[in-house]
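Tutorial sheet, problem 5. The three components below are modelled jointly, 1470 residues in total.
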Amino acid sequence: MGWQPTLLLVIAIWLVWNGAVLAADTTPESLPESLQVTVDTIWVLLCAILVFFMNAGFAMLETGFCQSKNAVNILTKNVIVFGVVSLCFWAVGFALMFGDGNAVIGYSGFFLQGLDLSPLTDEHYSGVFDSLAWAGIPLDAKFFFQLVFAGTAATIVSGAVAERISFLAFFTFSAVLSLVIYPMVGHWIWGGGFLQTMGFWDFSGSTVVHSVGGWAALTGAWLLGPRVGRYRPHGENTIPGHNLAISTLGGLILWFGWFGFNAGSSMTADPAIASRIILTTNLSASTGAVAAAVISWLITSKPSLSMIINGALAGLVSITAGCAYVTSIGAIIIGFIGGMFAVFAAGLFNQLRIDDPVGALPVHLVGGIWGTIAVGLFSVGPNINDWHSETSGPALGFLLGGDIKPVLIQITGIVIVAAFVSISTLFSWFMLRIIFGLRVSHQAESTGLDLSEHGLEAYPEFSQRSLPLNNLFHSVKDNVMKSNTSTLNH
Amino acid sequence: MGWQPTLLLVIAIWLVWNGAVLAADTTPESLPESLQVTVDTIWVLLCAILVFFMNAGFAMLETGFCQSKNAVNILTKNVIVFGVVSLCFWAVGFALMFGDGNAVIGYSGFFLQGLDLSPLTDEHYSGVFDSLAWAGIPLDAKFFFQLVFAGTAATIVSGAVAERISFLAFFTFSAVLSLVIYPMVGHWIWGGGFLQTMGFWDFSGSTVVHSVGGWAALTGAWLLGPRVGRYRPHGENTIPGHNLAISTLGGLILWFGWFGFNAGSSMTADPAIASRIILTTNLSASTGAVAAAVISWLITSKPSLSMIINGALAGLVSITAGCAYVTSIGAIIIGFIGGMFAVFAAGLFNQLRIDDPVGALPVHLVGGIWGTIAVGLFSVGPNINDWHSETSGPALGFLLGGDIKPVLIQITGIVIVAAFVSISTLFSWFMLRIIFGLRVSHQAESTGLDLSEHGLEAYPEFSQRSLPLNNLFHSVKDNVMKSNTSTLNH
Amino acid sequence: MGWQPTLLLVIAIWLVWNGAVLAADTTPESLPESLQVTVDTIWVLLCAILVFFMNAGFAMLETGFCQSKNAVNILTKNVIVFGVVSLCFWAVGFALMFGDGNAVIGYSGFFLQGLDLSPLTDEHYSGVFDSLAWAGIPLDAKFFFQLVFAGTAATIVSGAVAERISFLAFFTFSAVLSLVIYPMVGHWIWGGGFLQTMGFWDFSGSTVVHSVGGWAALTGAWLLGPRVGRYRPHGENTIPGHNLAISTLGGLILWFGWFGFNAGSSMTADPAIASRIILTTNLSASTGAVAAAVISWLITSKPSLSMIINGALAGLVSITAGCAYVTSIGAIIIGFIGGMFAVFAAGLFNQLRIDDPVGALPVHLVGGIWGTIAVGLFSVGPNINDWHSETSGPALGFLLGGDIKPVLIQITGIVIVAAFVSISTLFSWFMLRIIFGLRVSHQAESTGLDLSEHGLEAYPEFSQRSLPLNNLFHSVKDNVMKSNTSTLNH
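Model answer (structure tokens):
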């Protein structure tokens, strides 16, 4: 008689209880979960904004390293390229890269009309990489982050082909690169394609961004040939950059933006991994700069500013693939070798008479290759950084685990990307040469592309090239330098 | 007999239960709520810091677009204007704009002594716009975000009046603008005033910031008259900017800062809306740049760097009002028309002989008007973006819903603001003309404002204007350009 | 008979209940707690990235304020110094500064192998300052934030010793400063050392960073002596900076980065304190700029751009120690006095014939001392800003509470740091003089350090110093200025 009500009570309490717990489970959890998405999103957006700013860095770096008569041309290329890539990558590129598709290419989500897999649209929040639901942040944020990467790849090309390429050819090539070539490689490595399946790892794009840009730059620079007067039958003429102040500014802007480039690539705001990436990125850049300083000091007995800037950038490119996977010591070694390679590779490309006015090849191509191999050498293995699931992250590197396989996989990926990008960009450059012509006339090159291609001068009040006395000035310059006229009192 | 204890038990459990649930409700909610405030605050602060950096963007853009003999003057204006606005807007402007008041003006909270409606001071967290408690972030953060906007409005003026205005007049005008004129318009549209009530929408300030600055720039440039030698009886003399490298840098800094300008305006870190705003902002800037490139290419057969920079900026100004309310396609159309307008409006103002050295009017005034109208044309309607409450957000735009009313409301607002700002700034400029004089002497203008107003030169080692050979140089310049002297080997 | 089951029921419910509440307590709390760490970490990282960008600010500021013939040298110093400091501070400096140790020095955690006290490694989350567990963010993030501060201290020196120091000497001195001298002072004040125990407060480093850099700069500038031709027996020759556009850019980049410098120092993302710091920082910078404008205007009848830039920077240095502890009014007064001191101190150092090409001493040394004293004058006392525990934060300032003791403690700290840094840097400079020599030859100084130390020119196309006509130009310059040749039509 006393048991029934109690039993009823128990059942009643149990039901209420479960409902309440369920409610309690939902309410407090849903709030933090959406907060996690919020934090992830603003982190990725801010990182992407930093990467966007790298456009200014490239513009200043490249312009300063070239002659003043081509400054307007380089500046124009660097501004318009991002506009062009924005539209192309939005309409087509992103779909080919991250859309649902096969192992070679994506074919859905054109014009960003894809499925938004973020929890904001009631999809499950994953927060880990996955070929489909690779982050919980909104699609618009994913796209913008990937867009600024695509812009970087296109911008790398502009430096190597500077001072002689026609504006129309470059404009069109940027579109082709961001429409098809870059997205395809990106799909293979980041979009669930065959290189990702194979176990090839490239965290932030030493290969996807920098080598792709580098190979395109190499084929362009090679096809275009060197600038008029750059090489003599037995030697070379250095054509100095016209403004090392803005080049240095550009280099430091790139270093600044690179923190976003590498740390945003996790697509989540994981405190441990973000902090680690920023640490390794900075250590590698620093040792790259120091390596280039020391080596240029030893070789030429004077530390070279341009080498130091490019050394830092080479350190940054080199750590890009492995920033999340290596130790501090690993980062230091990777950066040092990257900076060293940048100095020596610059000489090598000169030997090959491939004229690269800003040093894009030693930095982005060589650094990108080295950084990708370095993952196979220095990775601490999966399951170390707690944000990795057990099956995620590259295998223990050769130098730590003794297994050469990870290195071979990385090299395989590098070779495949090299072959594809070289051939496809060569084909593209050839087509552009047939349609528009690639290179400006020698007369336009002598005058400078600013006047011939844009009808503007960057520094009209200071242009010495239009002064008849200029030749006189230069002829007496060496003598004057020896006499060291002091100008302290002006 | 068996029922009473059970009943007591039920009651006891019920009481404990409620207390516990209440406690459970409070504890886990309060933590995420304060975390939400934290995330909102750091997001808004970081966006505001990006907008602050636009001061550097304006400084570089305007300086590079002017002559080197006025560089120090423009740089000084751009630095000091933010200092002046900081103090004026803190003391008075913010109170007039956001303080409790009537439909025309606020009149409380001077010296930032207002009620802090953030949850940190025990007020309810709203997180949505509201004329009073329009965000949950601390008052200091709201103020700083609004301050950098006020600074932008004042800075816009400096470009249009450059190379001839007296420093003292500009200094004082900046104070007047940020003390009274800008805050009053801001109150009408963002501070609960009559335009806001009327249904006028301007998300990030195409009207509040850019048109206000633009009208003030127009009256100033008109009253001052053109620079000496700018116009001939039947034609014009182009006065080229002295350094397009820093102008380009300035343009890219502005683009960079604009992400904060637009995305921070929600005053909350909503992942969906922040991502959407950054996407639309970038698409509009990109199409603005491409539009200006294509149109200047078609008209002059050469793509113009200055047009491309101003096209991108016009795209940015144009999307500012509607960045949160339009689709990607909408953003692309808005930006394209904005960039196109920038090219044609520059010609129009020249026809009117309104001398605007940096193109502030085509970008900020025309772009601001167009962007504000565009909200009435392209808005997707309220209740679409989930952060809007049902009654919030502009009505469905004319091109999507067919109702012309939203467009008419936007135009009404534009006209009212135009009338008020034109008259009040004209009055202010007149008063300043009476008190100090507005314009420097013709002699000072010829010498350059750097020496006459500041006693400094920006580039003392390179100043060609002080060289007697300069005229000689310029007289032979055209001939030399045709002969294309190569300087490759120097 | 009816009671037992009910009793059992009660016990059962109680047990389940407790378990559930415990679970409910754990789950929703742990998520926000880790989220709090996440938000703290990304805030500190983003602030640190902003501070990193100050390297670009210093590079542009200093380069523009010096002569073009030394531009490459200054740029190189500013890039390489951060690379050197990154490695030195990682290997040794951070351990001496924040490692477990005694009241004078830390001696654990070399090569960043210290205990990570963040909750991510199962340590308790504190979120308040504490000599050991001073923040809940990961060790890597703490380190990076502290690293960019160490880099700032080293960079300050480069400006004051510019245009005459040998590159090797500066390179080595940077290493010494970041290896030992800076970390020791840092340990005393921020690492649990004797000044911290004594009640000396310096929130973001007016003393730790700016005065330390300032004293090192003073001893260096004094030992090196002035540049050749800088002072006459009875007077001085002004050596104008070669590019005030990039100097202004540098100044604005520094202002931009300073928001991270000051607001990140709480090491947590507290919305109230972060907003407050950014407000006070900006007000102080603004009044510093306005003060310098007004005072230079009154003294020379022309507002000086270089004074305004240095005034803003002095305002920033001055608020650095007290940004979290003072009111808006306090910040305005501190900044005004800081900006005023910057103008007058520049004259004073000139009287003392200490040649400081960029004004590092008036800004960083004088501003740093004044800002540190200002904490003792203007602090609102502990327990006001809610993030302070009762025993945290400086005592009520003299001007608010009438107790002179806080001022005396601050002065004691300043004197101790002055003595230590002066002596240790003097010793270091002396050792470097013996080993390498400190100063370049007079011939190298006349030629410029760019050619003598680096074999490069910053602007090879524009270098007028190598032109024989240059002296002619300068001799006729004054006459020409009076005749005001117009160049409007070129």
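Marking note: Chain B has a mean pLDDT of 86. Full credit if you identified this.
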